[in-house]
């Protein structure tokens, strides 16, 4: 991979969903499908919307270790990013990624207490393509 920012960024931007993993109360990994990140800063920081009441939010408050996975099934390649999640509940963070139509999920709008932002910060990653893996630092 010549340019991780460009290669990984292209995979991320083309996906409609991503997968987020966290550790449950017994220390076992759990994975959930989510809508793609609303915003990203390079391949280091990603912002996702979710329900405050979801199991994953409670777990991230306890232990922020996480992985984000993006899969390009058309070309059978993917990227796993390892890092940490912060649960953001400020109005500023919520407004930052709010989109028209989000009231479908959060009936009370941007101030809905069941709406929060997950800020994922990557530390390292693993890229898979053409039957080969490549680790990289973020």
Question: What is the structure about, briefly put?
Answer:
With 138 residues, the protein is of the alpha+beta class. It has helices at residues 4-14, 55-62, 91-97; strands spanning 17-23, 29-35, 39-41, 45-51, 65-72, 77-88, 115-129, 132-137.
Task: Based on the model shown, name its key terms.
single chain; alpha+beta; 138 residues; 47% strand
Describe the structure.
- By secondary structure, the chain is an alpha+beta fold.
- Helices cover 19% and strands 47% of the residues.
- The mean pLDDT is 96.
- The radius of gyration is 15 Å and the shape is globular.
- Strands 1, 2, 3, 4, 5, 6, 7 and 8 form an eight-stranded antiparallel sheet that branches.
- The chain has three helices and eight strands.
- The two termini are 14 Å apart.
């Amino acid at each position: 991979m010549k340019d991780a920012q460009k290669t990984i960024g292209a995979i991320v931007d083309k996906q409609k969903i991503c997968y987020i993993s966290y550790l449950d109360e017994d220390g076992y990994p759990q994975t959930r499908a989510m809508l793609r990140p609303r915003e990203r800063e390079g391949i280091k920081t990603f912002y996702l919307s979710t329900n405050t009441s979801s199991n994953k939010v409670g777990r991230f408050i306890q232990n922020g270790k996480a992985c984000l996975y993006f899969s390009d099934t058309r070309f059978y390649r993917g990227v796993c990013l390892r890092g940490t999640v912060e649960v953001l509940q400020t109005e500023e963070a919520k407004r930052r990624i709010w989109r028209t139509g989000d009231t479908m999920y959060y009936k009370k709008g941007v101030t809905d207490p069941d709406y929060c932002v997950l800020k994922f910060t990557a530390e390292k990653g693993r890229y898979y393509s053409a039957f080969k893996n490549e680790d990289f630092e973020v």
